[in-house]
# Entry
Amino acid sequence: MKSSFRIAGIAVLALATATAAPAAPKKAAAKAPAIDATLMRQMVQRLASDEFEGRAPSTRTEPKVLNYIISQFKAAGLKPGNKGSWLQAVPTVEVTASNASALTVTGAGAPLSFRFGDDYVAGSYRAVPKTDIKDAELVFVGYGINAPELGWNDYAGLDMKGKIAVILINDPDYAMETQGGLFKGRRMTYYGRWTYKFEEAARQGAAGALIIHDTFPAAYGWNVVNSSWTGAQYYVQSANNGMDQTEANGWIQKPVAEKIFSTAGKDLAALTASAKEKGFKAVPLGLKAGFSFDNAIRKSNSHNVIGVLPGKQAPNEYVLYTGHWDHLGRCTADARGDDICNGAVDNATGIAALAAIAKASAKAGPARRSQVFLAVTLEESGLLGSKYYAEHPVFPLSQTVGGVNMDALSPTGRSRNYSITGGDKSELTGIFRNVLKARGLIETPEEDAEKGYYYRSDHFPFAKQGVPMFYVERGTDLVNGGTAAGRAAEDDYRIKRYHQPSDEYSPKWDFAGILQDAEINMALGRELAMSKAWPNWHSNDEFRLIRDKSRNGK
# Structure
């Protein structure tokens, strides 16, 4: 589950301190324009309606979704942000698998056979008409990490050509209660993300990669994996049609992995414990696996929507507000036969907040810097829309100060606490804390840091290019109901609604918390837009050198 990105507070302008001589009376600071909560409710209801069929990119409904967002951006007072156009094309490949075979495992005793969907899922990043892996050796590579700076390489001495890497999810020290481990303990690093594990398997030349699903370290149940991997998959077009990727990537249920390891005469639990230790050596399982599926290939363009409010004093410096408009489209049907994953929370709420903040910002008048409102596509396919913008920016990233990202704002009411997702990584933290103080809110550590939320939304591609972004979470200490109610609501969404047809709008939603998030996101963005400061990453952060190089070469 992606966290609800809920940031705190509007900075209060201090009155001038009295001097010995009487000072002339000063006007009180103008109150920020109110966020239009009715607009947000209307937008969430519309974006999450069956009319938009789950907002899948590059489908017949994309133009309707884009036109609706553009109409709201226009009404808010934005100007087209891409050289007179509202849109930035993102060249896309859609790969839809069909006729998937069972996953068969041979080499010891009777062959094992596992069903697609129930036991395993897989897809290809290659734009080829058929994927057919036969008799590929299975190799357990622990957590599948190659981190030279940490002296860690799970692939040391291996030749993975023609083989399938069997990989554990998350980091080796995710089960720690603290964040003091080599891989930051409880806090997931990028090495723990499934996207990294597939990327590294491809760099190692593997034919395939299968991640062992385990609910706690994965942060979601098998139902989420199933719904996310059984429909169309989207990728940004590449010159080589993805041929530098593995032939297939996928997931297997943990009980499936246990059967496979047992057949190989191995104990998964014991090998998992070994994989947590530095110096772990990969273990060939002495088994071979095969599976196949057909691929329907369609190349098209999806689109980011870009609007801008030009700045007054420094119009060539930019602050970003981001949120993704896409969701899963049609997915695995539930017990009622509903096969539309409407994505009401994820992320109709973020787009509604984006438009409402734009409207309030326009009413507030020009800021010192330009404010860019970016509704990105293909987040659900691996943050591809924001990745494409970050690699092909309309506004130079060397002149982009930072920004705020909004994703999955929870309808659980106002909270007393907020936290920084990813931890204290940059000088944005100081602004965040000042804002919290101004609103009487409490900073608490990120909840569920092991779930790796920092790497799961659209600020991350900007971070990889050196741009710091606010990505902050409304806490579960609710004004009405406290932490018990807050955690119950979060668990209900994660288990029963996230990436499922049941993520639907309800008129019973409490918009107070979503309104709180929008007010706060606007405040933090406005603080950056009005400032002359250039917040940087802390000196020991992995993105600091990238930012320094970008700014020095501007």
User: Anything to note?
Assistant: Residues 1-29 have pLDDT under 50 and may be disordered. The chain has two domains: 37-88+302-474+506-552, 95-297. The domain at 37-88+302-474+506-552 is CATH 3.40.630.10 (Aminopeptidase). The longest strand covers residues 283-309.
